Write the structure tokens for this entry.
Amino acid sequence: MITNVSQNSLIARRVNVANTFGARLKGLMGRASIGSEEALVITRCQQIHMFFMRFAIDVIFVDGDNRVVGLVRNIRPYGLSPIFWEAQCAVELAPGAIDSSRTQLGDRLKMETFKS
């Protein structure tokens, strides 16, 4: 589970972690969608690509202290996110998740199934 402690909101109930080279490279490729309460945490990640993706996503970039250092809303297939040099991981979510959780830069997240 991932919650936004600063906003007292739920970001994702089900969390998968991509922490190997292959899993990080693949990410969500090959899937048709991501659920509204689902997240994929990609470790050691400062930028994501959307090559060969079939759907748009929201992405929250988080530093080693679980603080939000970057937000990318509705990034579409074949796009590239900006580079967030401070980021330690990227949290990939369904479109609209950033706004529905009221997540903002500087917010602190609690990632119960993931340690950065």
The longest strand covers residues 68-75. The chain has one domain: 2-111.
